[in-house]
Amino acid sequence: MAELSPREPYFENRKGEVTELRAALKNIDVQRDKIKYRTAVQKVIGYMTLGLDVSSLFSEMMMASATTDLVQKKLVYLYIREQAESNKDIAILMISTLTKDAMDDNPMIRGLALRTMCELKLPDLLEYIKEPLLQGLKDRSAYVRKIAAMGTVKIFQFAPDIIKDPSVLEQLRGLIKDDDGQVFFNAIFALEEILADEAGIQLDKDIVQTIVHRLHTVNEWSQCLLLSILTRYNPAGQEEVIALLNSLDDRLKHANKGVSMAAAKLFLIFTKDTLFLRNDVYNRLRAPLISVVSSPSPELSFTALPALLMVFKGRAHLLSKQFKSFYIRESDPGYLKNLKLVTLTEVVTESNMESILSELRYCAMDPDASVAEMGIKCIGKIGKDHPLASDKSLELLIGLLESNLDHVTAYVFDAIKEILSKMKIHGNYIAAKMISYWDKVTDHQSGKAALIWILGEFGEGISNSPYILEKLLDNIDQENTAEVKLALLNAGVRLFFQRPPEFQHVLGRIFSHLVEDETNIDVRDRAMFYYRCLKTDVNKAQELLSKGRRMIEDCHAKKTLFESEEGIMLKDLNTLEGSRLIAY
């Protein structure tokens, strides 16, 4: 016999009580006493919420629904909704009671009965549900109407043909004009779900005006959804756009950040083809977005920063004065610190360049290795993307090298490589200075590969560069990463073209190992390609490899230019996907 889990003895002891409850529910004296009857029903619900099997009490609970006690009726209908699928044959008998309650004078009972019918999900009952549902959509009580509107969605999930009937859809469209805000929203939500295959509810000027004027009557979650629906509307002209934006301007300053972000997305979409309006929208969005980013909640800041980056990408001048809002705090978690550092890199201008670089230098010395790495990468990116900042960035990075912080040295090499790949100035001086730090990156493959790349680029001016490469070759058998080996191959070939007599022997050793002994197929194929090119014609090989190098650099330059002009992807703004793309 299998060992009982800790919960099983508990349930075993309760099985006798289920039998006692059945007896109590059948007892005439209990049924005559409203308090005792309600207490017995409450115990059934209590056991059900604990996970105990109370399906055997379905008949007794069904009889308990015939009461004028509203609390007891709610409890019974809750039980029926949960247990109907396991008692399908008996549940059919409930339809007459539910239909009767759907016509009760009390709107609470009518709404309760309608909600229960819509949640039974029994195909055999569908023919009985449609008429009460239609009656509920035009009920005199707003409570019943809002339940009926949501009931259409519940039935649509397992019987779409009944709900897509023109009579039902027409009733739902009529509820858009309902005086009650919740009924109005439920009708729109239901039509969105039902017509999802047809791109949702069809928006016209009349419906849009209704949504805009009724927006303040619903809760924040509903406002977010309605603003999202409005993004599909195509205004007739600039006058209509301006009128809509003026009507929704207060949503940008809403206390709920979700509403303000949804409004920001709507504003950007409505003005995507109108330059003078778009510039005004950027000025309006700046304060609300920075307000969200400055929130004391790190989770809220983390979700708002990607939106701000998407909106203002390529428009750093609009945030140049607010850059201190993105400085990291000691209390910020690591994931938020990294994203703030990325944001700082995007808002660099000539006026704030020095201040941001100083902040990044401070972050580069953070005890958290991931934050330090990101800070150093950002310094490198600024130096690469902003010619005026290249000298200052290199100065900071060399200063970090001289600080003898082992955990940042390898990242500094990567950052310096990024700058020197675009800015060749001072390359020989920096390369000669960095060679002395070789021993500090022996365990960091990316930093080692970056240092070898720098040696290959500027080794022509370093007198002992052949001996440095030879020293690396002495330990190449212990090197098991393709990144370092490819860097060594590229550096050897490049320096051979610059100083053939000194590097011929070194290059021969590189080919000997990478062609004959190398197991990584990518590295071996690259080495074979270089070897055959050089063996065929050295001059042609130099010309071929130089052209290939220029083509790669041009492709990177065009990609960067394209990305800066592409602007934001509006469809991803204020979505999880948009946050993921920026944050990771």
List the helices and strands and how they pair.
Elements: H1 8-26, H2 28-32, H3 34-49, H4 58-64, H5 70-83, H6 88-91, H7 95-101, H8 107-119, H9 126-137, H10 142-156, H11 160-163, H12 166-174, H13 181-194, H14 205-214, H15 220-230, H16 238-252, H17 257-270, H18 275-293, H19 298-312, H20 334-346, H21 353-364, H22 369-385, H23 390-402, H24 406-420, H25 427-434, H26 445-458, H27 465-474, H28 482-498, H29 500-516, H30 521-536, H31 538-566, H32 576-583
Helix pairs in contact: 1-3, 3-5, 4-5, 5-8, 7-8, 8-9, 8-10, 9-10, 10-13, 12-13, 15-17, 16-17, 17-18, 18-19, 19-20, 19-32, 20-22, 21-22, 21-23, 22-23, 22-24, 23-24, 24-26, 25-26, 26-28, 27-29, 28-29, 28-30, 29-30, 30-31
Structural description of this entry:
- With about 575 residues, the protein is an all-alpha fold.
- It is built from 32 helices and no strands.
- Helix 29 (about 500-515) crosses helix 30 (about 520-535).
- The chain is elongated.
- The model is unreliable at about 1-10 and about 555-570 (pLDDT under 50).
